[in-house]
């Protein structure tokens, strides 16, 4: 039996506790219950200390189990044969009894059944087993149910199981059915074929070989077989040496603990898949956001924002005369003669709001939600897949109401940029220049003289420069208006999509991601 480092046990125990915490609700309930029991039991045993090795002799009635107990102890502690009382209590022989009572109390061994083997009279003769707690269990095939239950209870607590069988009952099907249930603990079991003094030299190899065959068929190939006789003492020394080696290495507890943990992990592992979707990038999530954006009317809102930006900026983009005419002609509100305050109030009432989602858009949203859930649940065991579907099952009404709130919280107002005041000022200056040149030129027509710049009169120069620069400003303003409208539209589109993405995350993606993350944590903890 190879030694097992205690660090491996602690790491596995931490992994089991983490797996139960992360995914206990989605795993087999019976396996989860066993996992909690094993974790609690090992935690309690670790608290009591792992410096002692608890070995139990287990066997059927008449197998010589109590005789082996006495032989290993070197003194008569358990009554054997017909003298042995029918009892459901275990007996304990302790090497280094000081400080062993808490462990024996935890094992529930009655104080009257405890014996301290080491004494001053023994000197160092018993030092090889220092730290051993040897138990003689009730017969596992007892006709008394209470006795069998006591044996089974202690089988689940001890560090090493030594099964004592005899040539008459070693092939008993009830025994092997019990042993098959302990396949996961083959590394912390020994089988002792006792009473070999009743076999001839030819029968012993055949009997041992048949026992080996049966154990291999039970899935217990790693189990070591020893042959002994408590009558002649043959093989008892070899068993004692093996136990002394285990005590010295203190490997039995770690081996048994790891076997218990591996058995529980094996029961829990079918409840998780080999892999899962990436919680931070769930498949089909982008399609869900796009479907929600369409249902929230984002294209209509973005178009309205860009159109409003162009309209507001057009108020200073043309020459002032052209602007005044276009403004009066194109804006019906101006024809009503309302004040600026009343006009603004009417614009609030008539602004473009996001349209209600059409049935087709709602269907696309529901389909996108189902696609996300199907992709996230793909390959997961039933309980995890159900949890994914439950987590992402937001109703259409919930999504619609949350979308309306999210979109309504985004600032989609359009304000005329301050730099348009510079354009208006430039237009005023150029208009004044153009009008001054025009009036001056008209005065020259009636005979009033004017200075010349080269071959061109100053009034004509003012008129030409004013009109030309005004046209250039108009071109620059139109380009700026288009670029500004695009940028404002992009900004609003980004803000609106972020709001829609937040709704998708809150109502669908994050709840699903939490289930997927719990599955990943559970899977990684079980494989720790």
Kindly describe this structure:
The chain is an alpha/beta fold and 528 residues long. It has two domains: 198 residues, P-loop containing nucleotide triphosphate hydrolases (Rossmann fold, 3-Layer(aba) Sandwich); 242 residues, no CATH class. Helices cover 59% and strands 7% of the residues. The protein is built from 19 helices and nine strands. Strands 3-2-4-1-5-6-7 form a seven-stranded mixed sheet, with helices on both faces. Strands 8-9 form a two-stranded antiparallel sheet. Helix 1 packs antiparallel against helix 2, helix 15 packs across helix 19 and helix 16 packs antiparallel against helix 19. The longest helix is centred in the last third of the chain and has 69 residues. The protein is rod-shaped and about 155 Å long. About 2% of the residues have low confidence.
Give me a quick take on this structure.
This protein has 528 residues and is of the alpha/beta class.
List keywords for this structure.
528 residues; alpha/beta; Rossmann fold; 7-stranded mixed beta sheet; two-stranded antiparallel ribbon; 9 strands; 59% helix; rod-shaped
Q: What global shape is seen?
A: rod-shaped
Number of strands: 9
Count of separate DSSP helical elements: 19
Q: Report how far the terminal alpha carbons are from each other.
A: 23 Å
User: Assembly type of the shown chains?
Assistant: single chain
Mean pLDDT, all residues: 83
How much of the sequence lies in strands comes to 5-15%
Kindly state the percentage of residues in helix.
55-70%
> Could you say which structural class the secondary elements and strand pairing correspond to?
alpha/beta
User: Can you list the strand order of the major beta sheet?
Assistant: 3-2-4-1-5-6-7
Contiguous runs where pLDDT drops below 50 for at least 5 residues: 345-352
Major sheet characteristics: 7 strands, mixed
The figure for the number of domains is: 2
